[in-house]
Amino acid sequence: MFNHPTDVPILVLTEEQSWQLLSSAELGRLVLIVGGRPDIFPVNIAADGRSLIFRTAPGTKLAELSVNEQVLVEADDFSSEEGWSVVVRGTAERLETSQEIAHAESLGLHSWVPTLKDFYVRVTPTEVSGRHFLFGPQRERELGEGSDSA
Amino acid sequence: MFNHPTDVPILVLTEEQSWQLLSSAELGRLVLIVGGRPDIFPVNIAADGRSLIFRTAPGTKLAELSVNEQVLVEADDFSSEEGWSVVVRGTAERLETSQEIAHAESLGLHSWVPTLKDFYVRVTPTEVSGRHFLFGPQRERELGEGSDSA
């Protein structure tokens, strides 16, 4: 799926490729600023067109997301041979209308905390960046010269 | 390994339990503030006592980490039945002495970018928090009443 030029272990993905990977991802990590410092939470995600939806429960920090909150969502997957990571930077807003919520429910997202009062959040991207990594034999090469790092 | 009280799907882990999980983790995500906004990068990690080490290459944003930079490192693992996530909040500093570097090399960390000029960074925690998640039958229960979420 990803053709790296020779000797290019890290491939910068197109937005299209990044969304292909996001479509297959079920787990992501939400990064947001809480009280002036970054925080990170695992979330179940679903791609919905060119946005991401996740579900959360009241009483959590996620529930304090205000409208148009700036967030990051990262998803990745790695094996010993290859890996990818996609980062969506965007704004988060809670879904409020019954139409929006019905649509979000149709995506089959699971909640982390079983509660009847879960709600859905949509992350609308302002920037999507992805990388694909190839771990060839070069990955096994070790330094052997620590003095380089001083 | 993790005994949840009945009907408690999310268990707050002790620091000891969190480090047990970190010791088994090879992949983490580093969160740092770059130019006033959060950024996130996958990194290979190794636990070294009660700190974490990762390796990175010059010319990356990670290479711009200053001494005592405030960072987060998150590691997680999930199956359909259970999962965990541990977040280390701490300060990052580049390893400079040949002794430190030789010790870091002994941890067997792989680099993302093959280069002879990789360097090592140690994250010394100020706070470690972990959660273990049990996804029982309740995870399958769906809402059925979207109007709750408005």
UniProtKB/TrEMBL annotation, chains A, B:
InterPro entries: Pyridox_Oxase-rel, Split_barrel_FMN-bd. It comes from the Bacteria. This is Pyridoxamine 5'-phosphate oxidase family protein.
